């Protein structure tokens, strides 16, 4: 019974799990690309940062 209350309290704090999952997946993928290939890191990080801001603005916005 105590474990069930703990899980519910954790889920209450995670309001937008899909948005956070998309952003985390994007950054992990970028890290793998940078490690595995020789690419322009500056441009890749700038594009990822811009995409993160756009996704977080749209995904974390509360519905009224």
Describe the structure.
The protein is mainly alpha-helical. It contains three helices and no strands. It has helices at 2-13, 17-36, 41-59.
Spans with pLDDT under 50 lasting ≥5 residues? none
Amino- and carboxy-terminal Cα gap:
34 Å
Helix/strand-derived class? mainly alpha
Shape: flat
Helices and strands in order, then pairings?
Layout: H1 2-13, H2 17-36, H3 41-59
Helix pairs in contact: 2-3
Task: Please describe the structure with a list of short key phrases separated by commas or semicolons.
64 residues; mainly alpha; 3 helices; 80% helix; 0% strand
Write a concise synopsis of the structure shown.
By secondary structure, the protein is mainly alpha-helical.
